[in-house]
Amino acid sequence: MPVPATASPPRPLLRDEVRTRLRDAIVDGTLAPGEQLRDAELAVWLGVSRTPVREALLDLARSGLVQAFPGRSTVVSPVEGRDVQDAAAVVAAMHRVAVVEATPLLTDGDIQRMQEANDAFVAAHAAGDTDAALAADRAFHAVAVERASNAAVRTVLALYGPVLERAERLRFGSHDASASASRHADLIRHCTARDAHAAASVAEGLWLDLLTDTTPQETP
Prior knowledge:
Layout: H1 14-27, H2 39-46, H3 50-63, E1 66-69, E2 73-76, H4 82-102, H5 108-126, H6 130-148, H7 151-172, H8 176-192, H9 196-213
Antiparallel strand pairs: 1-2
């Protein structure tokens, strides 16, 4: 029979659904750093077979959210460490590219969205709502990423961005969030002036700061 002309909406692969749920559980702390991840237990929790869980864990290992030790165990990665530092450097570079490309194209509405997101970020931090602060921060940075419309940037950020959200959660639960709000304001100011390179430097610096925040300190 011929293929029907009316297409059904695409359904996400089960592996992708499982990956998203595990990723979110790691990012929000439900699955804590160092916690052992047993595919049988996760399969029961998620109501799926072990195969998509194993596939999802392999994907999460590639992005650095979990660590796999062949023949031994798979555990949630620590918040600090080389994987986080590498991810911060890559994500910082991608945001720099996005801002350079987006700044000449930003509309007044885009600038307004950035300002509203930063206002929401400040309010969330004042209220002690870390989840809302993270959501506002994502909305703030998404403006330039969306306006740049660079598929490679979006792909890299989707892979490595979640690795940094746990570090951001720690930052936004502290006084450092006020410094982030001030840097956001600087970024808005440079974008409004259409100074792409100054804006890009601020955007990159926001993410490179996580390198310092997540670098283990040596004991004297």
